[in-house]
């Protein structure tokens, strides 16, 4: 080989290597954020009465985590933290929001989306928002702002709050989709807007009755939380919602295949009202709650097959997780309790959605990225709060000071290069709890042991609680009395974190 040939071949090799580094440094990122999916709800996490082959495939070819936590045991605070990298207890108002709440994250705030946008990603959100819209008194008949766009999403197709809260319309890039201006939408959370029938006054009109709450405006034979009128042509079809949202997620990927993109795909499944498409009605013997898990698996499969068809699967970082633990009866008579059989939605964990026990915040978490992540299982303790700083590291973004103040760089653990997770992590439900290694500390708190309607064990106790999760994952033996020093140490740590800014 002549010197010239040698130089040409090495620089070509360097170029290829350089490209490879640039590509793996900027993978596409798809975050599938499932609603209310519990630690035991997927077959790759031990479920046997429902099969989730598409998600299991992600786990098999990727990394399955056993100790990853949402920020809180409900939706809005978890989503707030996911996007901002700040514990939600620091944000007044980060609690389950009504459908007419103003935007919780102010324009200009650094978020996962704005950071990736700045790094040259095309950013999009599809699905459940539940982070508030507008500045108060939203006029649903005009352009709605601020919203996703003002915090970094180039494109959005969202459910404003939840499936069980009005308004029951999709908002696409700031406008209610399919709205007829002659039939304007009004929303009120204080009382009925006219003499419209409600779930309370006309239960005979319902195809799915509430078990608690959810007795206000009726849309598609399902009564919701809150009141709305008008907007008939814009109302969503519950049975079609998973198809609709998945179609939007797929089209986002297809349209942006030629550039790095970040898709935040926040499914409505498996939240109430559980309304699987009729083609899933025989998918499990668990009724609606089981069938929406099967539907969710189909949605994840569609995203994966789209990436595959586009030749993008290898260099796309897919993360699938949930926003809080599982709940069985969350307000509708959908036979979820009766048909549960031996299924344990929160697996071996105690408590669930709303609870201070592990079932509140410990959720499925799967990382799939064939170009960079070797298959396996990781027990690292990580919070979804860490995604901001970890993805900043991955994409070589620098965060301004003050951004993501509670977020730690866990990139090596997330990619399976290290087994080391966090030292400590705050878990939030009705109060705060602290994980430190395998210790779990719950400060004394007032409140019902069991939440009456959902039947959730809340983790309230007037005495401090301390569990050793290495031996007692189900938090059954309170070791606080024998370990006063540990309790004092963890109580002090939690206080210090609360006081820090
Ligand atoms: C509760 C609702 C519940 C659900 C939850 C929010 C009642 C009685 N219960 O207040 O059905 O909507 O809020 O869920 O109204 S979350 O996943 O969005 O946090
Ligand atoms: Ca939720």
- Overall number of strands: 21
Poorly predicted segments: 1-20
Class per helix and strand makeup: alpha/beta
| CATH fold descriptor of the largest domain | Alkaline Phosphatase, subunit A
- CATH class membership of the largest domain: Alpha Beta
What is the H/E order? HEHEHHEEEEEEEEHEHEEEEHHEEEEEEH
Q: What layout of secondary structure does this protein have?
A:
Blueprint lengths: L2 H23 L2 E7 L18 H9 L1 E7 L5 H10 L27 H7 L3 E7 L26 E5 L11 E2 L2 E2 L9 E3 L29 E2 L2 E2 L3 E3 L11 H15 L5 E6 L20 H23 L6 E7 L39 E7 L7 E3 L3 E2 L3 H8 L16 H4 L9 E5 L3 E5 L2 E4 L7 E2 L4 E2 L7 E4 L15 H16 L2
Parallel strand pairs: 1-11, 1-12, 2-14, 2-15, 3-4, 3-11
Antiparallel strand pairs: 2-13, 4-5, 5-6, 7-10, 8-9, 12-13, 16-17, 17-18, 18-21, 19-20
Helix pairs in contact: 5-6
Bound molecules: 2-acetamido-2-deoxy-6-O-sulfo-beta-D-galactopyranose (NG6) and calcium ion.
Calcium ion (CA) binds next to loops.
Please provide a brief summary of the model:
The chain is 23% helix and 17% strand. The chain has helices spanning 3-25, 53-61, 75-84, 112-118, 241-255, 287-309, 387-394, 411-414, 484-499, and strands at residues 28-34, 63-69, 122-128, 155-159, 171-172, 175-176, 186-188, 218-219, 222-223, 227-229, 261-266, 316-322, 362-368, 376-378, 382-383, 424-428, 432-436, 439-442, 450-451, 456-457, 465-468. Helix 5 (241-255) runs parallel beside helix 6.
